[in-house]
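Continuing the series of single-chain predictions for the mutant panel. This is the parent chain; the variants come on the following pages.
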Amino acid sequence: MDMGIAGKWALVCAASKGLGKGCAAALVREGVNVVITARGEPALQATAAELRALNPLVQVLAVAGDIATPEGRAAALAACPQVDILVNNAGGPPPGDFRDWDRDTWLKAIDANMLAPIELIKATVDAMAGRGFGRVLNITSGAVKAPIDTLGLSNGARTGLTGFVAGLARQQRLVSRNVTLNNLLPGAFDTDRLRVTLAGAAAKTGQSVEAVADARKAGTPARRFGSADEFGAYCAFLCSAHAGYITGQNLLIDGGAYPGTF
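Parent structure:
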C-alpha cells in the first residue's frame, strides 16, 4: 500500500532507539523526511546514519537535546522546514511508591510526558490545518488503559495527555482540515527500557533475566514481546493519507494482554 506521505516532513521525538526509532524508520521507508531528536548525541547520530541508509532519497536531520525543555523543543522545531507529522515520545518516569514522590518528581514526569507533547502540538497543529494535512501521534503506554500500580507517575502524566488529546482531536477546525491526533499505547515491546525493567525485576526476585522475561511473555496471549519495527508500521499507517477519518483514538498494541472488551 502506498501511504501517500512521500515528501512530507516528520518530527520524531526520542528517536535514537526503541519505539521512536521504529517509527522514524517506518516513515523513512515511506519517503518521509525526518527530524529526529534524543538527548544522547552518539546514539542519535548512529541512528541518523542507519535511517539515511534505509532510503537515500529522503533527508534525515538529527537534533540532540531534551524535548522536555523549551530549548530542546525550539531546536527541534527550528530544524524542521515544516511539521506535517509529529510523533511525540519521551522516556517514561521511573517506577516506585507514590509515598516517596515529592512535588518536583511529579512535575518532572508531567513536564516530559504531558506538557512537552502539548507544547509541540500547540506549535504545529494550526499550520498543519492551514496546509490541509497533519498527523499527530503520541506514544503513551498500555498503562493508560490498564494502570500499573508501581507506575503512578506514568499513569498520571500520560492519562492527562490522553484526556487533553481526546478533546483537541475532535475540534472541527482541525479534523475537517485533515489534521488528526491519536495515541499509540504500547504493551511489552523489546526495547532497552523493557530490558532494564526485566533486569530490575530479576535482581529483586533472585531469578535470571531470562526467567523473568519468559514469565512476562507467558502473561501475553501472543507469547512474545512486540518489535519496534511492527510498532513503527502501525505508526506509519496512522500517519498516512488513508487515516484521515481516524482521530481521538487510543490504539492499544499489547499482543492481547489487556483482557477487556473495550
